[in-house]
Amino acid sequence: MRRRKFLAMLAGTALSACVSNTTLPEAPRTTPTTAPQTTASDLWVIDVDRLSPGEQTLIITLQGLVNSQSPRIWISGNGMNGLLLDQLRQGGTTVHEVNTAWELLRQFASEVKGAVVCKLATSSLNVATSVCGLHQAVAIDESILDQARSVGLRVLFDARSYDERKAYNEFGYQFAHGIVVEQTIEKNAHLRDYAVQQKAFTYFGLDPGTTTQIIRERGPDTLVYGWGGDEHNWVQTLSQGGGMGIAADWSRNLSALSKLHVPISTFPRRYPAPVQDGQRIVAFVMSDGDNIQWMGGGFVTDKGFWANPGRGTFNMTWEMAPVFAEVAPTVLNVFYDTASRGEFLDGFVTGPSGAGYVYHNYLPNRAAFAARTAQMLHESGMSVVSVLNSGGSMAQTAELLDRPEVLGVLYKDYAPYNLEHGAIYWHSGKPSISYRWLLWEPLSQNSPAGVAQAVEQMPARPTADQGSYAIINVHAWSWKEIGGPMEAIKRTISQLPPGTRVVTAEQLIILLRNNFGTRVPQS
Hints:
The structure is a single chain. By secondary structure, the chain is an alpha/beta fold. Helices cover about 30% and strands about 20% of the residues. It has 18 helices and 20 strands. Strands 11, 12, 13, 18, 19 and 20 form a six-stranded parallel β-sheet that branches. A four-stranded parallel β-sheet has the order 8-7-9-10, with helices on both faces. It has a four-stranded mixed β-sheet with strand order 14-15-17-16.
């Protein structure tokens, strides 16, 4: 989104939803009514899941090369990938269906200078991914080397005698700054197109010291796309290097999405009516919004999530990775354009922990991270930052609260998320509010009934007692047996005590500030 002031976007004074309101609006759309503006005039589409592993790797790296300036190769799929392809067709893009890897290679043969040989399931795959962009080459597994030679591909580099560290030592000065990719060698057909397009160093499982050193050398604020091994150790290592994780190891088509240049839409907002005595103010926030592979994959069509028929019948807040504004603006627009904007709203806050997944306790420069987060808030149109920390304190969100772009912070600890039990840290008149409760299997206190009973014990004096406000984390991966986390929220709301006011997280922070901190002007 182009730079704009948040306050100018807050309009109207309609009262946010209370649980006593029984009027339920029609569920919102899940498909935008207009196609995205795009520079894609022709798109060659292929289903790589029908190809051999060697052919898959060939096509994924070819995609990264060919999409260097504009989107021309697209990997077919369901969820967001299928939805956006349909949108592109509707927008006038000519789609060419391709059946074989070699047919697609012939189409773009003039743009390929040769081959980098690798052996799948070895570190040479990551080496090949790293250097393909440098050599304007495609990765060729040894199993299809003879066939590649037969169609005229000459070998430019043999990666089979290299590991990632050797490749970095030899070519590190040529790799892009500000980005690296950590991708397991077991995934040969995901994310690698983006690595090739960006000329990003690609690795997996290096020791923490080496990883931290590499991130510092590629920095500052290096984005690490993919995923490591153990989550906590991975994020701690990235944070110590001043980098940030972007969960993307199952992503497809990022090289195409990053070249679909569109203006970012706005999502619906409503300035909340003043609180009244007798009310308890709560907001439900869906977790795991840092996960761009899921948000950019099956999330949009999954009835447990965005496609839930109950979405739009209560105020809801979704974590959403602000990096979408840079790497896949069309994905962000799907959510903004189809967000509920009637009586009840879909609101958005950043995924943890702002610009990317970090632990603030380990960052060498929290002010620099806050500045990068503020930039992404401008681009994505968000105002509230979700922070997931480990071993630190809520005071470590001060640098974020210092930023004028940040309305407030939602705070959770690595384990459990609600370790601070709803405590609020104030800085510069802004709140960093910790999660009070969790909707998370299997503990009974984290069930819909358990959370509803806990809300009933809250104070109901929102003008005088900060304990009258609470945010509730909704665990994205729980409640599958009852239909998903959205169903768990609906069941919780149905059991809340009378007068409980369910608002978006952004509205809750406005109300908190208006009663206990620096007031947020309505306009």
